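User: Run a structure prediction on this.
Assistant: Running it now.
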Amino acid sequence: MSFSSQIKDELSKQVAPARHCQIAEIAAILSLCGRIQISGDDHYSIKIHTENVTVARKCFTLLKKTFNIVTDISIRRNAHLGKNRIYSVAVKQHEDAYRILKATKLLTDDGEIGENLSIVGNVVVQNPCCRRAFLRGAFLASGSISDPEKHYHFEIVCATEAKAKQIQTIMATFDVDAKIVIRKKYYVVYIKEGNQIVTMLNVMEAHLALMELENIRILKEMRGNVNRQVNCETANINKTVSAAMKQIHDIEYIRDTIGFESLPAGLAEIARARLEKPEATLKELGEDLEPPVGKSGVNHRLRKLCEMAERLREQGTGNGTE
């Protein structure tokens, strides 16, 4: 089961105790994956289509608990996607459909259908608890989340810009900064930051999924820190090895041109020590000297030898001997 399916399965088992929250969740599901039909004699019926059986089950439960309505459920194969099934939850009785549409504010006082719920002055999403339920229903209806092991991406797909902006505005009331992008003919409300997705899971009350995501985030952060530390240490080792190889090359050049006998005692001593222990650190080289010398002293002597080697090379090039 994908991470997205896990979340929907968890959310499908939650039923808000308050009726107004149940209505808000139904409103979101109807708005995003519902169809309202009007017959010739002005009779309403509702159909909710989904590819997820858990969403169909949640619709059935909500309608039964909130309105005491028994719905018809049908299953058919998706002609375009082969094995995928389409689950339809239908409310065929006019009186039942009318009650649902009025309660969810999808039907105006004049009997006009307004599919895009208005946030301003709309009692369906007035309370914070109802906004949580609305977002939960929206995610169940047309939301998805990527595998957090790979990357962070949360989205809800909407048929119109008005619906997308509505969801974006409701998310903003919980300090979630969602963006909207057009994908083909749809408007997608999305979040890409891990901490914002955690906030959304908390808002929707998907607490088990939230804990799993947090565990994954912690492990990914730990792996990232370890990798950065290893990379840093590797870079330092490479830098140290490269510096030591250059020192050895310069010291050998001095030995082969003017010899160690012509060097001051301190420089000759560190030159021999470096050739004897090419893998030693500056601290280890200094401790082997008599008397011992600190890292800065060893570094100063090796730098003097490197400068001397460069001068000798320049003199050799100028004399035509190299």
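The longest strand covers residues 44-50.
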